[in-house]
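A further point concerns the way the authors explain their paired sequence and structure data. Since the whole study asks how a given chain folds, the encoding of that fold should be made plain. A single example would do more here than another paragraph of explanation. An entry of this sort, consisting of the sequence and the corresponding backbone structure tokens, reads as follows:

_____
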Amino acid sequence: MPEFFTSAQVAEYWNAALQYEGDKPIYTADEIQKYRDGSDPVNYPNTDWHDLVYKTAFQQTHNVNVNGGNETARYMASVGYQGQDGIIDNFNKNQYNMRLNLDMNPMKNMEANFSLAYTQQRINSPVGAYDTGDVAQILRLLNRISPMVVGQYDDGTYGAVSDGNPLAWIQEGGTQNLKNHNLLAIGSLKYTFIPGLSLKAQVAYKLYMEDKDKYSKRIQYNPSYAQGTTAKEITNISYDRITADITPEYKKSFGNHNLNLLAGFHSELYTYKKTYAYRKGFPNNSLPDINAGSASTAKAEGYNQQLAMISWFGRINYDYAGKYLFEANIRHDGSSRFSKDNRWGTFPSVSAGWRISEEGFFDGLREKVNNLKIRASWGKLGNQEILDGNGNSSYYPAISIMTLGKDYVLGNSLASGAHTYYAVNSNLKWEETTSWGAAVDVALLDKITFTAEYYNKTTSGILMKMNTGAIYALDSYWANLAKIRNSGVELSVNYNDQFGKVGFNFGGNVAFNKNRVLDIGTNEYEYVTGIDNYTAVNWVGHPMNSIYAYQTAGIFNDPEEMAKWPEYAFTTKERRLGDVKYVDTNKDGKITPDDRTIQGSTDPKVAFGFHIGLNYRNFDLVAFFQGAAGVSRIISEGRGGLSASTSKPNALWLDSWTPENTNAEYPRLATPNADINTEQSDIWVPNASYLRMKDLQIGYTFPKALLSKVGISRLRLYYSGQNLFTITGMLKGWDPEAPAGRGNAFPQTVVNSVGVNLTF
């Protein structure tokens, strides 16, 4: 968790900022001392909001598996439960899961398989006082509200700022109850006509149902301040997907020649349904039934959508003596998303390999070099998925859709009507990714395996929204606009060895990726909007999600230099010593938004992970680490501004510029009316490279000789730890894996758990 200013520090810095800006201080030395010593916590509090709200939580996981059968029928069944409390009150999750697998041979040459998996989740969480908010509001305010605000008084009332009080939201506010069901059933039947020739038919059904019930409450923090609206919001979502596959397959070996032919037909039908209801104006906070809300505020929405796909595919596998390998694939896919003229896309791929270690001339090296293989591939893939900015899928982008809600004058009265809302692009087609690559696989001394692979992927015709002109009657439409290339190298290595009674293994992988925007339609760039101003940009010739910010050259310490520095045309606020020196990158004699440049990317250039494993007698240990490099994040809130009532600067701002601390790392803390240092600049774009221990597990397996006496097949005790430590260049208190924004992402939690694996 980050460390923040105390109330005394906020008061001191607020006084200094006011005085430096020509205003009178508002806190006396006596008041600052009371904040510091805690002698009057009601009137001069020093609230540690994280300590007040966050807590250690408990979670549990239980699973039971049963399996058995004979040559004709085999089964496996499992049931499980996971209960998890949140690190804030009134936040919890309960999950139940069940699985059943059946494998049968009902007659000669016939195989039948059936699997059923079901999961139910219930997630309960508190929500903020706004009827449009969720738990993210609570997390954001926890990171912002001043320590000068009382959490809760002895009489049960609350201190509050204009935004509210996160503790009150948790204890007295509304709740969101989310319940979902996941069901997946798969059945298949395979018949072998003659050796090597078979036909398989498979049907799968997936069902997802979600019921979200949110009740927001009006909160009376204290006698003088209340906030929020009592409102009820119910959202029901369901979707199901039915797929069917028929795949004939032929396998045959002719001496050293091995052939595998596969053909197939695939179809699927996806149906999505959403129903939404809303009311506000409830008489009090104790009547959550939606009928208790005011009928005049009622809203109701609902719709059904369908998506269908058909695919024909084929595959040829051939190898000669396991030395020369070849594979060719082709798919012919059709999607109902596109018009009939562009509905189908054809996507071929080929790959080939040569196992050099199987050649006769390699015999003398095979004991040391167990395997040496080179391979190459080329192929095309298609994508028809279209997501809007809210993560919702668009099912009918190529046809005109009518929208209700437009009234027309007929005679002397208004009549309900419908209209076309979106523009339509009937030329919309499949997005295509063409990729090629080459790799080498090596195995040494029966202990080491190593793979190096180069890849080059170019995605063209990327499905994006195209804005229409301001005078055009219809809204934006979908088009095949952008082109992006990703290329890079992936390396992986594994090492296994035994040193006496100690077993050791190590495995790691690293990926170096170069991403470039090659085309973005009619524009050279497009902004990727964030919560607080523009946060990133997609620009031709630069990586996706590049950070667009001012370049800086330090902090003003010299009055003459500051007077000669180019004018800050983006603000009318007075420039002072201690402010940021923004760079005039385009050399036009003034600092404007046009001087912003690319300052890194939110996507890493390097991603890596590795694990270390040890075992000794009955003890075992595995540690897994992951990390990234060449990645930046954007701090969009709390970047140098100071407000006595609504902000608690991170403790790292203690190294802010003051007349006595002119070599500070950060600019002066300033009041909102005078601050010019919060513009998105490289100061607020820290290096987010990191190394994190994601998981550590230590276990002990009891000897079988001891367990057999009590009828137990296997018994293992273990400890598991997650997110135990992180090494990062990120600003202290910010998670390098969290998205850029306003500090409302749920924090990474350290999880310590113990468990038992028991098999009878």
Observations:
- The first strand starts at residue 59 and ends at 69.
- The radius of gyration is 32 Å.
